[in-house]
Amino acid sequence: MRALITNDDGIASPGLAVLVDVALEAGYEVVVAAPARESSGASASLLGAERDGTLLVDPTRAPGVPDHVTCYAVRAAPALIAFLAAHDGFGPRPDVVLSGVNLGANTGHAVIHSGTVGAALSAMTHGIHGLAVSVASARPRHWDTVRGVAARGLRWLTDRPARGGVLNVNVPDVPADRLEGVRSAPLASFGAVQARVHEVDRGQLMVTYSEIDPARDAESDAGLLARGWATMTLLQAPCFDPDADIEEVTGPL
């Protein structure tokens, strides 16, 4: 069994090593391929940097990752990295893509913008298990808590069909003995921040951001995470409504 580890925080992020540990402990052969620079907000973009028609990929070392694990810094968005892995871009096709650990939560409908989630969704659309893991801190201290929850999520996910959805995991940055537990959670109807756009002069726009109180939706992924629970949410994409009442036309209009 093979696992690809990627993220959207870049090859230097300490979260990569946590997911490498989880995958190795589960018995996977592991390769790391992560963006050469931060790609937060990349969603499922397939953007990449080329030179003479060749995608820029550099063998490198990632902090905290064992020396025997092959690592690449890729000038590409995380979803493109997962796409390439599905086509044997970093060795044989992986059985699972673990994305993260993202520094900061990925909750609510704003997950559509997340590069961490985008990589896992890209994998899932190619018939590969996709796990996205985030920790609710920009400077996490309690990696053991994240490691334990991620391992639990990986076991649950890989018992399902590979096209059965992406598991989005969020973990509070608390000691393991202070974790309230693990809950299945719906997406909050909002993201972590609210944006406001102002026109300042002649069509020039200024965007300001403010944090949103997660307590406004206490039983959502954001609300539970704020109260000390780790959350797991199964995401489905792309999706469609087969019962939509769309008027069909035969022949030219």
How would you describe what is shown here?
With 253 residues, the chain is α/β, with parallel strands linked by helices. The protein has a single domain, classed as 3-Layer(aba) Sandwich (Stationary-phase Survival Protein Sure Homolog, Chain: A), CATH 3.40.1210.10. The chain is 20% helix and 29% strand. The chain is built from five helices and 13 strands. It has helices at 15-25, 78-86, 115-124, 143-157, 221-226, and strands at residues 2-6, 29-35, 50-51, 54-55, 57-60, 70-74, 96-103, 129-135, 166-171, 181-184, 193-201, 204-211, 229-235. The strands form three sheets. The chain has a nine-stranded mixed β-sheet, with helices on both faces. Strand 8 (129-135), helix 4 and strand 9 form a beta-alpha-beta unit. Helix 1 crosses helix 4. The longest helix has 15 residues, at 143-157. The N and C termini lie far apart (53 Å).
CA gyration radius, whole angstroms: 19 Å
Here the CATH topology equals Stationary-phase Survival Protein Sure Homolog, Chain: A
Topology, number of strands: 13
Distance between the termini: 53 Å
Tell me about the largest β-sheet. 9 strands, mixed
Uncertain segments are: none
Q: Work out the helix count.
A: 5
Helix content: 10-25%
Proper CATH architecture = 3-Layer(aba) Sandwich
Order of strands across the biggest sheet? 5-6-2-1-7-8-9-13-10
What is the domain total for the residues? 1
Structural class: alpha/beta
Q: What is the H/E order?
A: EHEEEEEHEHEHEEEEHE
Mean pLDDT across all residues, rounded?
A: 91
- Kindly estimate the percentage of residues that lie in beta strands according to DSSP: 25-35%
Write down the CATH class: Alpha Beta
State the CATH superfamily name.
Survival protein SurE-like phosphatase/nucleotidase
Catalytic activity: a ribonucleoside 5'-phosphate + H2O = a ribonucleoside + phosphate
InterPro entries: SurE, SurE-like_Pase/nucleotidase, SurE-like_sf
Family: Belongs to the SurE nucleotidase family.
Enzyme class: hydrolase
